[in-house]
Amino acid sequence: MKLTIDSTVELLNGTEMPRLxxxxxxxxxxxxxxxxxxxxLQAGYRSIDTAxxxxxxxxxxxxxxxxxxxxxxVFVTTKVWNDEQGYDNTIAACHRSLERLGMDYADxxxxxxxxxxxxxxTYRALEELYEQGLVKAIGVSxxxxxxxxxxxxxxxxxxxxNQVEMHPLLTQKRLFAFCRKEGIQxxxxxxxxxxxxxxxxxxxxxxxxxxxxxQILIRWHLQLGVVTIPKSSRAERIxxxxxxxxxxxxPEDVVAIDGLNENxxxxxxxxxxxx
Length: 275
Known about the structure:
It is a single chain. By secondary structure, this protein is an alpha/beta fold. The chain has helices at about 30-40, 55-65, 85-100, 120-130, 145-150, 175-180, 200-210, 215-225, 235-240, 250-260; strands spanning about 10, 15-20, 20-25, 45-50, 75-80, 110, 140, 160-165, 185-190, 225-230. The chain has one domain: Alpha-Beta Barrel (TIM Barrel). Helices cover about 40% and strands about 15% of the residues. The chain has an eight-stranded parallel beta sheet with strand order 3-4-5-6-7-8-9-10. A two-stranded antiparallel ribbon has the order 1-2. Helix 2 links the parallel strand 4 and strand 5. The termini are far apart. InterPro entries: AKR, Aldo/ket_reductase_CS, NAD(P)_OxRdtase_dom_sf, NADP_OxRdtase_dom. It comes from Cohnella phaseoli. Pfam families: Aldo_ket_red.
């Protein structure tokens, strides 16, 4: 199947999620976020990933409304933060997020991290929000296999998405295989290795395909079937990150990139959430 910027994956409930999106973590509320979202929508992106923690949900909503792109054409993800977890708190947190976004619903609502002793009741709230139609799909973020198994032992609606740190230095093969078996869509945050784009193999492949190292990494995720949400606030970089649909990595190059794995995290370990 030929991938395009309009390509989607089908989640467990039939919802279509774009394969490529824009992440807005650490983008300042106001002009920085609004300009980034506008640039992305103008470049053809139809997925924006934000969170309560990011403090820029209002800017995301303003930019989408200003873009002229119909709301139903944009897939909006947001997340409940750790200090908002628990059943009642999560219900209230979702309503606050929707108010800041200026939207009647979110396309995807995630638990940001697996807070021990809270994520099950938090997820029960997500199920309620889903059944009320306030969110079109639900899932988790930064959940390891043990968290998923524990959650699936009691939940009524299986998580549709697991958003985790993933890149060539952290390929998450066991987690990826588990999620694929369960029909849970893996989404990669920090796909560009926190800007560490000077790895010799990635630079070599960039030369081979006439692409940038970032484009090689994004294409690698897409060919694996992983949704990816590279973050940038610069319009030219946002457009560049979307210019990945006119080439295909050869199978041996995908394998070579897989071989870079060091189980190296740039973010926190989900088994040790202390924030």
